[in-house]
Amino acid sequence: MSLKHAPTPPAVNDELRSRANTRISGRWLLVARVVLLAISILYLILFIVGTPVYFAYLHILCTDCLDDRLTPDKFQALHALGISITTYAVYMVALNLLFALVYVSVAVLIFWRKSDDWMALLAAFSLVAFGASFTSIPWTLATVHPAWWLPVTLAEENVLGFPSLIVFFFLFPTGRFVPRWTSWVAVGYVALSVPSSFFPSSPFSVLNWPVLLRILVLLVVYGSLVFAQVYRYRRVSTLIERQQTKWIVFGVSVALLGFLLLAYLLPAFLELFIPLQSWSLLPYVIVVTSIYLVLLPIPLSFAVAILRYRLWDVDVLINKALVYGLLTGTLATVYAGCIIGLQALMRGLFNQTSEIAIVVSTLLIAALFQPLRKRIQAIIDRRFYRRKYDAAQTLAAFSSTLRNEVDLSQLSEQLVAVVQETMQPTHISLWLSKPEQSKEPNTRLLPRIDVEKRVLS
């Protein structure tokens, strides 16, 4: 077949169509690059000026504060561990800088590889804006030196970070609002975010609205975002675009769930027993570090999805995340229930301590791990990966038949049926070659079976 007249593979057509929709040139490309460069320079100035201010700010003790400064009790606990307050300040500064550096590095990589793609430029802008504004350094600079209030407010997460991410999620991966009415939701969210930062006392600020109304606004925005991605995935996206969407959804979901757990649910639960100001130093540092770490899947998923590197690996990651997430939650629930139940039982019958209950519960969890993991894996495969699960079952059954079948015609029919069921080609044909004559006596060659599969586009 002449290559000149060969049909273009569907994956190539999808990529060309996607790039054609998001590639820009000329004046608009120059404007987009200048805006991204200007925002990057603004954040760079804020970090150069704000890092020493934040470092000195951490050396100031406070009695009733919820920022990164130490209370006298925490300072005494730090001193008891043999760690100076300067070491603590260095750690917090390094944590903030590393978090911003990861986001900015991924943005630079995306800009370097796809600087003529406006969706890639929007992703780079979102990563720079959110990664730099989420840290404590710009906020501390505006707190200590009010003269920096305007540039810090202009660059804060509610003005550039979150709005740019929301708009990106509505547009990704085709660069169009699907359905079209979602554009009004995105514009409305951006319009509501700006007054809350620049005019927090005005009636247009969301902060002054009733709690139920604020919750309703968030439900509308994030509900529309989820609906748009599901609708696009099922009705509009191509195969490559679906894989890109999977990466973005996977990274954002892991980061969002982890952030909600560490920043809201865990503090709310612990506040029932101890005020946030009374937290000891070590749990506070662990929670803050974990919040920064759990948000790192966002830039990593952006890089993979936009640069299209190893797109199909996301299916394996999602599968393992579902399996081990359910496994961890189930085992933790069983472990806690066993400890509570055994402690109550032994205390009532034998007046024993909790050590026996802990040992028995640990042994039970160790015994349940492998069987429970295999059971959850089978459930996940049947529920979410039905086609692959059926294909694996079919191939396993064919392998068993292959060892016992001796009739060539029956074997040929089953081979065609297996290929048709597992690979689902548009057309399939089976060619059997004649066995070669052997010069050696007492030697019989089995016929060679070749399967020719031709998928008609």
Summary keywords:
single chain; 457 residues; mainly alpha; 17 helices; 2 strands; globular; disordered C terminus
Describe the structure.
This protein has 457 residues and is an all-alpha fold. The chain has three domains: 20-309, no CATH class; 325-384, no CATH class; 388-433 and 447-454, no CATH class. Helices cover 72% and strands 3% of the residues. The chain has helices at 10-22, 27-57, 72-80, 85-113, 118-133, 137-144, 149-154, 157-171, 182-198, 211-236, 239-270, 281-294, 297-307, 314-349, 354-384, 386-404, 408-423, and strands at residues 427-432, 449-454. Strands 1-2 form a two-stranded antiparallel sheet. Helix 11 (239-270) packs antiparallel against helix 12 (281-294), helix 11 packs antiparallel against helix 13 (297-307) and helix 16 packs antiparallel against helix 17 (408-423). The longest helix is centred in the last third of the chain and has 36 residues, at 314-349. It is globular and about 90 Å long. The two termini are 15 Å apart. The relative contact order is 0.07.
Give the helix tally.
Answer: 17
Radius of gyration: 29 Å
Q: Kindly report the average pLDDT value.
A: 79
Low-pLDDT runs of 5+ residues are: 1-20, 451-457
Query: Could you describe the largest sheet, including whether it forms a barrel?
Result: 2 strands, antiparallel
Count of folded domains: 3
What order do the helices and strands follow?
Answer: HHHHHHHHHHHHHHHHHEE
How much helicity do the residues have?
Answer: over 70%
Give the overall form.
globular
Q: Structural class given helices, strands, pairing? A: mainly alpha
Strand order of the largest sheet: 1-2
Distance between the termini: 15 Å
User: Strand-residue fraction?
Assistant: under 5%
Count of extended strands:
2
